Amino acid sequence: MDLLDEFDISIIKELEKDGRMAFSAIATNLKISNTMVHQRINRMIEQGVIGGIKPIIQEKKIGYDWASFTGLTLNKDSDSERIIEALKEIPEITECYYVTGSFTLYIKIIAKNHEHMRRILYEKIDGIPGIDKTDSIVELGCAFKRNISL
């Protein structure tokens, strides 16, 4: 059984246009009831299909001009859960992924400038026991970012 039907997909497409759109406006656009929209959105949030409805912050607009993608090599991969918990305590780390290849984890770091990035890497991340080394690639700008097409 598919997790999403045609109504769910249509509702998501409406929210992608404007995440602040009133449920009543979505209902009107799709010619369905407001109750149906409300129930469907709540169900998709509960199921984890929609990760919540929140603002997308444009970091550069608030003074965070630097970003990096940083691979982490761990002393022991079995320490990854403890290390992830420590990484969650660093607010400038906005994403963390398990990966294959040379690294165990891949993170995205957002910083105000190069000095701020250096402090995050050397004073915060390097101080976490179990991290053997880091390898960073500086982001020069996002060409595009989008959701998967439905």
TrEMBL record:
<dbReference type="InterPro" id="IPR011008">
    <property type="entry name" value="Dimeric_a/b-barrel"/>
</dbReference>
<feature type="domain" description="HTH asnC-type">
    <location>
        <begin position="4"/>
        <end position="65"/>
    </location>
</feature>
<keyword id="KW-0238">DNA-binding</keyword>
<keyword id="KW-0804">Transcription</keyword>
<dbReference type="InterPro" id="IPR036388">
    <property type="entry name" value="WH-like_DNA-bd_sf"/>
</dbReference>
<protein>
    <submittedName>
        <fullName>Lrp/AsnC family transcriptional regulator for asnA, asnC and gidA</fullName>
    </submittedName>
</protein>
<dbReference type="InterPro" id="IPR000485">
    <property type="entry name" value="AsnC-type_HTH_dom"/>
</dbReference>
<dbReference type="GO" id="GO:0005829">
    <property type="term" value="C:cytosol"/>
</dbReference>
<keyword id="KW-0805">Transcription regulation</keyword>
<dbReference type="Pfam" id="PF13412">
    <property type="entry name" value="HTH_24"/>
</dbReference>
<dbReference type="InterPro" id="IPR036390">
    <property type="entry name" value="WH_DNA-bd_sf"/>
</dbReference>
<dbReference type="GO" id="GO:0043200">
    <property type="term" value="P:response to amino acid"/>
</dbReference>
<dbReference type="GO" id="GO:0043565">
    <property type="term" value="F:sequence-specific DNA binding"/>
</dbReference>
<dbReference type="InterPro" id="IPR019888">
    <property type="entry name" value="Tscrpt_reg_AsnC-like"/>
</dbReference>
<dbReference type="InterPro" id="IPR019887">
    <property type="entry name" value="Tscrpt_reg_AsnC/Lrp_C"/>
</dbReference>
<dbReference type="Pfam" id="PF01037">
    <property type="entry name" value="AsnC_trans_reg"/>
</dbReference>
